[in-house]
Design a protein that fits this description.
Elements: E1 4-12, H1 17-30, E2 34-41, E3 49-57, E4 69-74, H2 77-83, E5 87-96, E6 110-114, H3 116-122, H4 129-140, H5 146-156, H6 165-180
């Protein structure tokens, strides 16, 4: 991993955007890395816009304020419109196929698309679409060790939802598999 990696996770409230960032942050902390997790969401929460900026670094983070990103994980068209131009040349954009009408047109970044909602529905748990995307993201950008991911997920999920850990783990594996096979569905 380079010295630091700056990521924007963005979508509608209720899509698990903040959770994805939180899980990356917890896992990186378990590895002794420096992290910054800065959420932002509208007052309407579910259905409103939500995003979080995560920085994972080997050394000190000079500022949590970021205006351009190494990676973007985008779950809706408004987020694509807002954050696509802010990804650095040579960066990475991962997006959810069913919610993006106009995919990124940039040629100076790597782009990967996943039908995470569809894959989550196959698991009969639409709430794990974010984990499918997170699995794909970490396969393409391995910022943390895979063994720390489930430890972080257990920490991020409220205890009342720990019964969903197996389906979340399965969703992560599906995302990783899609990304490793290069399948854009």
């Amino acid at each position: 991993m380079e010295k630091s990696h700056e990521i924007i996770f963005a979508g509608f409230g209720g899509q698990g955007v903040l959770s994805m960032g939180q899980i990356i942050a917890y896992a990186a902390m378990l590895e002794g890395k420096e992290i910054s997790w800065m959420p932002s969401y509208g007052p309407e929460m579910r259905g409103g816009t939500a995003n979080c900026i995560v920085i994972v670094a080997e050394g000190r983070i000079s500022s949590p304020i970021v205006t351009s990103f190494d990676s973007a994980v985008l779950l809706n068209q408004p987020s694509m419109d807002k954050f696509e131009p802010l990804v650095k040349p040579g960066g990475f954009i991962l997006y959810e196929k069913s919610t993006i009408i106009n995919p990124p047109a940039r040629k100076d970044v790597d782009v990967f698309c996943v039908s995470a909602v569809e894959e989550a529905q196959k698991l009969n748990k639409k709430q794990v679409a974010n984990m499918v995307l997170l699995g794909a993201f970490l396969q393409k950008r391995p910022l943390i060790q895979p063994e720390n991911l489930m430890k972080a997920l257990k920490k991020a999920l409220p205890e009342r939802h720990h019964h969903t850990l197996p389906v979340n783990e399965k969703a992560l594996e599906i995302g990783k598999q899609l990304a490793s096979e290069g399948i854009t569905v």
